[in-house]
Design a protein that fits this description.
Elements (H helix, E strand, L loop, with lengths): L7 E7 L6 H9 L6 E6 L6 H6 L6 E3 L9 H11 L4 E4 L9 H12 L5 E6 L4 H10 L7 E4 H4 L3 H5 L5 H6 L7 E6 L7 H4 L2 H25 L22
Parallel strand pairs: 1-2, 1-4, 2-3, 5-7
Antiparallel strand pairs: 4-6, 5-6
Length: 243
Amino acid sequence: MNELRPFTSVIVPVHNVQKTVAKVVSTLLASDLVDEVVCVDDGSTDDSLSILRSFGRKIVLIEPVLTQHRGTAGAIAEGVWKANGTIVVFVDAGLTTLSEDHLRALVEPLDRGAARAVLGSPAGGSIFSVFVARLTGSRFTRERAYLRADLLRHLLPMARTEFSVEVYLNGLFKKEEVTVVPLAGLQRPGRQARHARLGAAREYLGGAVEVTTAIFRRSLVRHGPVDPRSRATPRRSHRHGWP
């Protein structure tokens, strides 16, 4: 740990990514920018959990209570709650070209106090991410960084989302508090490469429906984006102990 910078935790939601997860975790463990790696298995049915267990105490491993896929949002919320970092970084376990430069780009704006949220912007993007960006006018990206303290009171509503977690997170801060950084060369296999084509199509469709529904609900509250900070703090979850 470098005492000259904030303690940084990287949260990795994991669901059936046995081909890539070991490389992602190894890259994080080798980074001088990362003080803690928190991996949250989200009910994997392949060898992902066994691979995570092989890292032993090098990582913080959160195993599922039930073998059930809760969604990325629930995994992220659980990871934030268990993390010890002042800064929390979200990284997809399906990445194939994650590097130190990508991590530095995500962490530095928060380290310098230049932003309260950092969104990574890989070149290109999936059909789904392009659809969401056009529909919402905001970024759809899984690679993000925040101050942990800013997220704690939002964990319960975050966990209730799935595909729409990015929509929720995009509404947490004003535009001038958000920095978008390019993540050149960052790649991940498409859903088609990890699942059967029919399953991929269902996932895209399900995501599109959920995101559209989330945007519609927000528009009903008022004419314009809802600032989640204006909502009352959710009641404590007895299961997770979240505030």
